[in-house]
Structures are given as C-alpha cells and as structure tokens.
Amino acid sequence: MTRRIGRLAALLAGLGLVGSALAQDWAWPLPSHVPAPRVPADNPMSAAKVELGRRLFYDPRLSGNGTLACAGCHLQAKAFSDRTPRSTGSAGALTHRNAPGLANVAWNATYNWANPAVVSLERQMEGPLFGDDPVEMGVNDGNRATILQRLRNEPLYPPLFAQAFPENPEPISMASVIRAIAAFERTLLAVDSRYDRYLQGRLQLTAAEKRGMELFFGERAECHHCHGSFNFNDQVVHARTREVETPFHNTGLYNLDDQGTYPFPNRGVFELTAQAQDMGAFRAPSLRNVALTAPYFHDGSAATLREVLRIYSAGGRDIPEGPLKGDGRRNPHKSGLIARIDLSEAELDDLEAFLGSLTDLSLPHDPRYADPWPAGYRFQPTHTQEAAHRETAHRSTSQP
Amino acid sequence: MHAHRLPLLLGTALLSACAAQAPSGPQPVVIDFALLANGHPARCGAPLGPLGADARSSTLRDARFYVQDVALVRADGQAVPLVLDHDDWQDGQVALLDFEDATGTCQGGTPATRTQVRGQAPAGDYVGLRFSLGVPEALNHTSTELQGPPLDIAAMGWSWQAGRKFAKLEVNPEGGVAKADGARAPSWYLHLGSTGCSGNPLTGETVACLRANRVPVTLRGFDPRRDAVALDLSSLLAGSQLGRDQGGAVGCMSGPDDPECPAVFARLGLDLASGQPLPDGQVPALRVVPRP
C-alpha cells in the first residue's frame, strides 16, 4: 500500500497535479497561425484527464480479450497511424479501412474516412470500442463490466479517474474512458514543423521545399483546394468556427464498372447515403506529418507518397487488371479538381519535399505522447477472477 | 390516491375489476409481445424450422427491438398514449423487447429477456394498438455509454450510423450464407435503423437522417387483456433468400442499395428508398395473436 501511494504521489507530482491546480489547468501551446480547437462543453481538458487518457490509450486491458490497445493500431512513430494498409483487430479480423493518423485530430469536423454522422472524437471512439464488423477492441455488453473491473484493479486508475472527473461520484465508467482518451487525442499536436517555423520566420525552406509549396498552393497542382487549411485539409472546426463545411471527394481511385463504382464496403459516404453523388467520396485527410503515415488512401492502397502524387498527376488511378480493374481517371463521380496535370519527376520531387516540411518531429518522439506503462508490460487476465465477476454482471449498465 | 395505487399492487389480473371501481384513474396495462417462427415461439436453443423463400432450416442468433409511441385505441378511434413505466427495459419514451437469453445459438446477447411493454392508461375498453418500431429521434443519437436503460445496450448501438439499431434480428441458416464474393457467412442479419445521418461539427451532435426507417404499426382488434403482438419471422423473411447473399451486408443492414433489403423492408411496410412507411400502412411481419 505504501508503495502504491508513493507511486501515485510521484506520478501526480510529476504532472504538477497538486491541490487546486487540478481544475482548469489546460492551455493549448499553439503558434499564432493555429486557432484553438473546439472542445466539447461536457468534456473540458485537464492535465489529469489527459494523463488518464494516455494511460488508457496504451492499455490493452481496454480490449475484450486484453490483447489490444488503441496504440496497437495508432503508433506514435507513425504519427499515430498504422504500418499496414488495414489493421488487425483484437479477434484477428482486418479493419475495412486504413487506420488514420491522429495528428491534430482535435480540429476534425468529421471523423472516420467518410462519415458525416460522426462529428466528435467521443462518438468516433464507439466504433473501434464496440464495433463488431469487424471486432476491433471487442468491448460488448458481456464484458464491459469486466473491463471496468480490470481498470479498478489497477492501483493507478481509481485516483486518476477521480482527479479527471472530480464531479462524478463513480468516475470509472466507459463514458469516462471515452472522454479521457478523447482528451489525450486532442493533445496530439503537429504545429511545429519546418513549414510552421518558416511561417513564423524562424527558418528558410529549402529551394525544393519552396518550389513544392508554390506548386501545392498554385492553380496547376491545385492541392490546396482540398488541403488548404492550416491543418492541410478542408474540414476544419475550431473554437471560434461559426460555419463549417464538410465536403467529401471522389478522387478517381476506382471505377469497377464505368459507372464509377468503388469496391464494397469502401464506397465512401455512399455507404451511408446510397446517393450516387456520394460514390467514392472520402474526407481529405490532413497532410500534417503525412510523410510518416504510409500506406495512404482510405484503404491503404498506395504504399508511398510518391505513388499518391503520381496518381494525382495522372488525374486518378487506372487499374488495368484484376478484381479491381477499372479506370478511375474516368470515374463519373470524380471531383472536378482532379485532372491530369502530368507533373515532371522534378516537380514530384519538389512536392514531396514540401510535404516533408509538414512533419513535426515532436509528435513521433515527444515522451508526453509515449507509452507510459513499463516496457514489456503484458496484461494477463486472471480467468477465475473475471469469470466470478461475470457471474454477478448479468446485465451491464453504464454508470449514471 | 389509495384507489389508484391498489391495482398497481395487485397486478394486472385484477385490471378489469379495479377499472370498474376507478374508471377515471390510470390503470396498469401490459402489452405482450411474441416472437414466432413457423407458428411456434422462437427461442435461442430450439430449431426454428425452415425460414426464407429458400426454406432454410435455421436457428436464432439474436432478436431484440425497440418500440416507441405506444398507444391504445378506443372504439371511437381515439389513440390514448400508454404512459410507460420506468425500469431497466423502458424509460418514458422507448421500450426494449428482448427475446434472446444469450444461450444456445444466440450470440453477444444478455441473459435476461423482456417480452412485454408495461405502462399505465386510463381504464376503458380498447380495440386497437399503435406503436412504432424505432427509437425517438431525440434519443436515437445519444451514446450508449451516457444514456440510461434501455438505451445503454452496446449491441443495440450502431456506431457507424451514430445511432441505434431499432431492430436486431439475426438467424443462422443451415449451411450458412453464400456471399457474392464466394465466401460464406454463418448468419443472416436484419439491422433496422435510421441511415444517411449527418452531424453538426459545431455542436458535436448528430442532427438529421435521410431515411428514418421507423415502422409505424396499427393493430386493429387488439385487446391487451386477451391479445399479444407477434413478430413472425416466417412472414418477415418470406421473400428473402437466406442461403445466398447478392451483395452489400450479409442480409440487410438497412442499406438502400443492398439487394437483400427490398424483400424484408416490404414485409415491414417500409419504402426502402425513402425510409418512410408504404401508403397502405400494412406491416405483414406483425400481427395479433392470443396472449400466451
């Protein structure tokens, strides 16, 4: 017990979490060209909540079978994206789409690759937590109470939950888990790249980066139409936003039947609306730290940034053979902004150099974003304990 | 006050006797529901018999649905809202019916079941019942982790539509379901819910859906003392090929372009394209049966 208290005291001291400093202790360390993000009124930021969220983000106890953490598919070294085109869930099934990077995810207007219904990180998280097609984290009504008991059994958690949710008499709930992880995700900032420092007059871009920047923001390459905000996308919401647009774009990656069809279940917003104009329409992702997030596109079907640039240079992707055969360049639903522009190899070099200048190296290396658990930590469910607990948890209900 | 409480304490068996003594006060009313397949109650452990247009021997995997806007209809046609009791299965606006008990062939469910809607209505003779399969719009997009019962069931959450499954009806046809891509799936799913929803990023709330997909039901000749509401899987799946899936989700997950949806939506009296009820108001999959 003494040792536990000592550990906790050390943790809290390290966070500066003492006394009244706990409340309203969050400030956004942002350069002047980046507005503060919108934070839901019912989930204010605090240092304790962010630290709790970080521990949960890296905690495999949060998955049904105790094998997978959020961080299993969102790797810090990859700007919190995954290495593979599609990720493997806790039960072994592959996700339908590529795990997106989380850099500056606080400013997203919508989440997932193509889902106008999901407009907060808190709601987004219900997908990987509870989804069963495929199972990702594998939380369900049968194991939710067991998972929460695992968290109660970790000595670090009860005081951290209490600090993070001081108004809640029973703070350990899945709702609190979701809120804490969302708060941590909102801190995953990429606002100190070479490009940001250039904007601040702190450094000069290289000649290649500058030529790439001019192409990027020019009317020939037209990258900026969909990637033109401070966050290098076109769906941004921040603390003072009054109007927000949520465009989705077909960029001519597939054309299975000359009618413009994309492969099921990756037909973009069409999967929700079944409206022809939404076929193949996906959210333009932020290009912050994009050099770290290969493979690319919603299905991870482009292995390198160069491959992506070549596809856009060609005005889409022609797949000459195989089950996905079709000329995406002629997709009838393709955005008018995607046209053949025949960039030279030198121009592709320049664009790639500019995209590289958007990498904030603090994101993949900052210890504040890193796995806080001891190296080699592995959760071993104690089966007898959990079985006994399940006996009493006939019907799981969420905390009030 | 005492007279009003008495029937509550004594239960529904004395409903008519008490009603005579206190004709104006609210009386307990129980609406029984049944899940049928081939004329028999459908249960997790027992064979359901042949289902679907291709008559596949099937077993049950899941059977749960929400109802809203429950009202009794008087002889003069007036609809009297049933004031729902508050318990783990219903709040003031929505009730969960749950026929799976997490045993046998059922998967991912809960041990407890609930086959009744319970509430209060003024005493009187009722000749009909109205309700909708669905969750009211104001509650549909709430989080399962923040909402109380009965909207706290994760399995009834529908995260990709940021809402809820109004109905989750799943069967395992013998031999599985052959998919269009050559693979085989064990279960045929019906997930009914609002689709094509969009949110407001400024508030973080989901605000509108293209297709409501709520099923309004009117049952004539329904007396809650005598009758029950049957959801008949044989009728619901009568037009569906359970052994072969032509594309989209396996079965029908309310996808407007899913080849399996037109048949089952027709049995629910819904127009697949609009998500609105068909003009004739008929819901073939539901009917009045004697109380068990």
Could you please describe the fold and organization of this structure?
The complex is a heterodimer of chains A (400) and B (292). Chain A is mostly helical and 400 residues long. Chain A has helices at 2-15, 47-57, 121-124, 126-130, 144-153, 157-164, 174-186, 194-199, 207-217, 224-227, 270-273, 305-313, 345-356, 362-365, 383-392, and strands at residues 318-319, 326-327. A two-stranded antiparallel sheet of chain A has the order 1-2. In chain A, helix 2 (47-57) packs across helix 6 (157-164), helix 2 crosses helix 7 and helix 12 crosses helix 13. Chain A starts with a helix and ends in an 8-residue tail after the last helix. Chain B has a domain at 39-68 and 82-114 and 133-215 and 233-286. Helix content of chain B is 11%, strand content 39%. Chain B has five helices and 21 strands. The A-B interface holds A 38, 40, 108-110, 112, 115-120, 122-123, 126-127, 130-133, 139-142, 144, 173-175, 178, 235, 237, 241-242, 244, 246, 264-265, 271-275, 394-395, 397-398, 400 and B 88, 102, 108-112, 143-149, 152-155, 157, 159-163, 195-206, 210, 247-249, 255-257.
